[in-house]
Amino acid sequence: MRLPPPVPLLLGLFFLQSVLRPLWGDLVFMPPVILMSGPEVSASLVGGTEDVTVSLTQLRDEMGFLPVPACGVLSNETGDWSLTVSPTVNSLEVTVRLKRGLSSCLSNETDPFPEAPCIVQTLLVSASRHSSCLAHLLVQVEIYANSSLAQNASENVTVIPNQVYQPLGPCPCNLTAGACDIRCCCDQECSSDSTALFRESCFPGVFGGDVNPPFDQLCSVQTARGVPVWFPFLCVQLANSPFLGYFYHGSVSSGQHASFDMYLHTDLKDFSDFGYKQGDPVMTVDKAYFTIPQVSLAGQCMQNAPVAFLQNFDVQCVTSLEAYPERDRITNVKVKNGTMGGIVTPKVIYEEATDLDRFITNTETLLSTGSAPRNVNVEEHYIFRWNNNTISEINVKIIRAEINAHQKGIMTQRFTVKFLSYNSGNEKELSGNPGYQLGKPVRALNTNRMNNVTTLHLWQSAGRGLCISATFKPILFGENALSGCLLEVGINENCTQLRENAVELLGSLIQVTHVAMRGNSNYDNLSDGWLEIIRADAPDAGADPPVSNASGICLDIPAQLNIRILFSDAGAVEGMTQQEILGVETRFSSVTWQFQCGLTCEDEANLFPISASVQFIKIPAQLPRPLTRFQINFTEYNCNRNEVCWPQLLYPLTQYYQGEPYSQCVGKSLLLASFVVLAVFLSNPWSGICKAWNSATT
Length: 698
Known about the structure:
31% strand; five-stranded antiparallel beta sheet; cilium biogenesis/degradation; TCTN1-3; Tectonic-2 isoform X1; single chain
């Protein structure tokens, strides 16, 4: 089709403009001319796009002349056309759309391929600043009635199913499009009459559409395959679903935005009105989880982890200040107390952090010093008071810090949750009753002076890992651990002072004299199962230390504290094994410290690492019987030296199996034996014997 006379001239001018103006750094459309054949086109406006106004005008050819465009008037709606502007990187994206559909073009058309276009118009997009035209985009519209864009795009789109739920090729024998393939029973193009002709001769297996064949042990294949008589007693009932395994009991729940509650799926039930059980998630009145950030098994900090009833935790989360999630105000949260209609509102107190270096590290230069400061929570401590299966009170202490609104850095947050009985006071918390529970603090006591130290400690480094900023964490029963910190030392460091500092830091971890044998030993009665700590190779502060003649070298500097705790099984209470501590030994290890120099030895502080480790060693209640000479030489029945272990043939009934009580193992074994006997009675040989016996007797 031939364009109107003014249009070719305008096309040439706009093309020349698009070539020269970017070289000058001016505002220009890319491309400057578009031939539009569909309902939508887009172009980019590059250059200085600040304070730019974009308008749309429909040009009408009158007497062979195009009118002069008027700039500065914002017009995003022109007849059947709309204009949208979206900012991008260093440019603006301008989109012109046809508002009405193209169904009117097909209403009276009988020719499927008409030569004349359905819509022929000329549109002009202008960019101006302060009523001054800066750039133009010419859009020549030619839309034909048989354009594929006039149809619904979704009608011809091939939808690829999710391979987790449906295989990509559900019918491999469907080889002919639009026709029925003989013996292909999964072909949807075959009518029911056609399929009835070859239903008994369908292609088997994967080629015939059986892409997920069931295995032979399924109960559903009994009628399809020849199976023995006892098959229904030993078949497998499979309940396979892509949603199996998505629910993780009592821990974390996914989410993107941090908040104190997370809304549940509509199918989940809330039974908190009838009381909580241990491990149940704490609920809010909005039928949502009461959530506090926790650390997952992968080490990631989950912002929306639900709090489980009667389960304490103490975690640390490391996050960037730029990505710090703003948490909702906890004072607005109402928690269900476990009774019908009962509500508990948390009581919150705020404290200001004193030492920000303990929580914020790698601080970078502030982007803006004139912005208002903001508050971040560095520690949150929750105490839940429980009574039977209800929550009676929630106390929260939040330690917050005031930082610049644009401050960068890494922040370490701490979150603790503790469940206490409603009638408990300030008494010391038990670590077990009577034996120790795994993961509870080791109870300790100092008889030389009155202090509040009630356990052994390890370091919990923060910030740069320096000893002066490190905090303490208790030693937990049954958990081996290793911790340390860094001590700043100069080249002219006094060796005696360095030795005293190291002894003092290591000694701060064991400021106790006795350790409790049991988890409920009485602090006021020293004879109630208290063991004195054995201090081996303890450094003598009054002895003359060895002297080195070289500068920057110190001999026999205590650098490591080893704590070994012996424990054993001391019986059982209601079937639960009770464990108690038999002894505790501390031992110091010394090293020779030498100042590390680079190219030159400058008077800059070096970092001297000191560490502490704890090791739990289990002592058997009864010493094992020594092996005889025959057992040492004859290794056929030694499970540790052979691939086949005959002594563990009936493993659930042996002493090596500790997964369940012995009585339950015996009961399940007898039940299994009864099934075997029943299967034998129902088997074909036994049925034949019974029939032969009956025929002989009759």
